[in-house]
Amino acid sequence: MDPVERIVDLAADRVAHGQRRVLLGLVGAPGVGKSTLAETAVDALETRGIRSRVLPMDGFHLPQARLRELGRRERMGAPDTFDVAGFVATLRRLRDASAETAAPAFDREIEEPVPHGLRIDPAVAVVVVEGNYLLLPTGGWEAVAPLLDEIVRLALNPAERRARLIERHVRFGKTPVEAAAWVDGPDERNAELIERSLAHGPSPQHWLRLD
Asked: How many Å apart are CA 153 and CA 135, to the nearest integer?
């Protein structure tokens, strides 16, 4: 089955059975295609008449100034460089679904979170939550998976994933050499941690290969 159709069917089935709001997680290493798949799935759900939005975990990056204070600028993207408490609090508000929920967006051009960049109103039936650490069992991240109704784990050929990441970093201002160094350094360390985390999580889980 097409990956988008699989995700759409998972969410739409819960809506059809009367669930007021569905939180569906997409998890995988950097460059696997989470953001593109999430946006495409939301478009497909909207076509079916199901109000849907994407919540990217990237919006919960700590600001650059804070990362410098912590001495963690060069490890941006590691689990402790996110506001995990804010992320969990936002998911809890989304589960409640009784009021509009504001959440930060992320500006990749300047690599900074944008406070209140996203707003999700109570009429939204499906929120596709995409991010790296939805199944991490430590550091406060263990509170995430129980808040999600479905979790889809994404996998991609490592060489293709690396090429995508290098292209992304170049697109946003790094030289090819800088991009490759970042991908083979911080990004790869994060990816190894994410891959180990994919075995965790109490909610129903599904595997999708995107290659």
From this structure: 9
**Which of 208, 146, 156, 161 shows the shortest CA–CA distance to 8?**
208
Query: Cα-flanking dihedrals φ and ψ of residue 81, to 5°?
Result: -100, 15
- Taking the C-alpha atoms of residue 87 and residue 129, their distance in angstroms, rounded to an integer, is 10
CA dist., res. 197 & res. 190, Å (int): 11
109-166 pLDDT, tens digit per residue, is 898 999 999 999 999 999 999 999 999 999 999 999 999 999 999 988 888 888 888 9
Q: 107 forms bridges with which residues in the sheet?
A: 112
Instruction: Name the pairing type of β-strands 112-120 and 101-107.
Output: antiparallel
Q: Please indicate, yes or no, whether the overall pTM of this predicted structure exceeds 0.85.
A: yes
Q: From CA 173, how far away is CA 72, in angstroms rounded?
A: 20
Strands 22-27 and 205-209: unpaired
Domains and CATH numbers, the chain: 3-209 (3.40.50.300)
Report the first-to-last Cα separation within the chain, whole angstroms: 13
Could you report the per-residue pLDDT of 48-107, keeping only the tens digit for each? 999 999 999 999 999 999 999 999 988 888 999 999 999 999 999 999 999 999 999 999
Separation of alpha carbons 184 and 129, rounded Å:
26
Cα–Cα separations (whole angstroms), residue 199 to 28, 113, 135, 155: 12, 29, 8, 13
177: pLDDT strictly greater than 80: yes
